[in-house]
Amino acid sequence: MIMDPEVLGYYEQGGERTRLRQGRNRLEYWRTRDVLRRVLPPAPARVLDVGGGTGAHAEWLAADGYEVELIDPVPLHVREAAALPGVSARLGDARDLPVPSGGADAALLLGPLYHLPERADRVRALTEARRAVRPGGPVVAAVISRFAAVHDGIYRGFHLDEEQRAADYRGLETGVMVSCRPGGFRGYFHDPEEILGEFADAGLPRPDRYGLEGAFWLYGDVDDWLDDEERRELLLDAARRMESEPSLLGVSGHLLAVATA
Q1: 73 plus 198 within the same structural domain
Q2: What own/partner pairs with CB < 8 Å and gap ≥ 24 does 97-102 have?
Q3: Which tens digit of pLDDT belongs to each residue from 24-80?
Q4: Bond from prior residue into 44 cis (ω within 30 degrees of 0)
Q5: 154 and 237: one domain?
Q6: What integer is the mean pLDDT of 154-167?
Q7: What spatial distance separates the first Cα and last Cα of the chain, rounded to whole Å?
């Protein structure tokens, strides 16, 4: 299948090498790791990391003793992930996985749904993840909140630009988000309720949903909390306690949805 060339160009800039390692994005990284360590089967299980980028999560999963296979459509990502200890990586598309049925103990889609604006493609990717996992294994999908662009735009000052502001407001209606900045992000942002129907149409049961960052990613001093180990643990604990509160799900920048195949 053909990847959107603009999305491919965005990722070929190499930003995924450091995105989850710097600034407030570390909150997304640590919270994703926190949830995965609770929902994945014990190591040494076989984890299929679909759209795993340069291996930010594959790296710690392998270190935890998991057998990790990463599949990604971006050649740069595959090369860098393949160099990680204990990680195998190859090119592939989430909508047509080059793996046998039931060969994995868990499947992660921690990026593909961001870049499939057509609902049928998102359901197909979820269906493929379900096919790849043994019965009873978890399928974990990450989505970006429908409201993230407006929140982020206010936080970072992009909302002052009339063209970007209009694009973000269109995204609230359609889910299709387009950055007006050169080389900026293009993707699909979910309403938290929307993912329930997509899982159902993929033959998966109603997923548990976890808001990753809560409102904390919008705090001006969140970097200070993340820099200090003691304060960071307090922050992560607070986010954990509110992670599945329905009224707060959309405030998070990212959500995880987890169901068993």
Answers
A1: yes
A2: 97/48, 97/50, 97/71, 97/128, 97/129, 97/131, 97/132, 98/71, 99/48, 99/69, 99/71, 99/132, 100/132, 101/131, 101/132, 102/131, 102/132, 102/133, 102/134, 102/135
A3: 999 999 999 999 999 999 999 999 999 999 999 999 999 999 999 999 999 999 999
A4: yes
A5: no
A6: 94
A7: 24
